[in-house]
Amino acid sequence: MSVQASVRAAGMVIYRKTSAGSPFEFLLLQASYPPYHWTPPKGHVDPGEDEWTAAIRETQEEAYITKEQLTIHEDCHKTLYYKVKGKMKSVKYWLAKLNDPFDVTLSDEHQNWKWEPLEEAVKTTVYAEMATLLRDFSDYLLKKA
Ligand SMILES: Nc1ncnc2c1ncn2[C@H]1C[C@H](O)[C@@H](COP(=O)(O)OP(=O)(O)OP(=O)(O)O)O1
Ligand SMILES: [Mg+2]
Fold it and tell me: Ligand 1 within 6 A of 43 CB?
């Protein structure tokens, strides 16, 4: 879609490899304000900034995970579109692997975090478009494996 949304945001769908059960888990952060929703780390693109730079910056600001700790799958990305307070918002997410175990630290914007396998993450994130994104990213990883 080539729609220019009036609010642009970007982030990283971060996963880690797990030893048992599901092959990987996704990192979700819970907003510290209503509706206390869960999303991967992401946030608004600053004026003059591009989505890629914003996704990396927001991941560092919200989860204290730096670009150096990640292997970003540059070719695996998807943009969600949804309305917030009547304005169309776009959020471009890339898929990124957390290279080594790391304790997430949160900013004031979030009150909790968790790592969840696909089906749990789909339930936690609630929104249908996010479910499709997580399934697509998961398929990408399974094909790569
Ligand atoms: N994928 C989605 N589809 C529809 N609505 C969503 C989706 N994700 C979040 N929302 C809702 C939850 C909130 O009521 C509202 C704004 O949430 P969100 O886009 O996460 O922005 P935010 O202002 O909380 O954070 P940020 O600054 O990180 O963009 O939209
Ligand atoms: Mg944010």
Answer: yes
Instruction: Report the candidate in 55, 89, 61, 80 with the shortest Cα–Cα distance to residue 134.
Output: 80
CA distance 101 to 109: 23
Q: Are strands 87-98 and 110-116 parallel, antiparallel or unpaired?
A: unpaired
**What's the pLDDT tens digit per position in 30-45?**
999 999 999 999 999 9
| DSSP bridge partners of 14 | 96
| pTM for the model | 0.96
Question: Whose CA is closest to atom 16 on ligand 1?
Answer: 84
- ipTM > 0.95 for the complex: yes
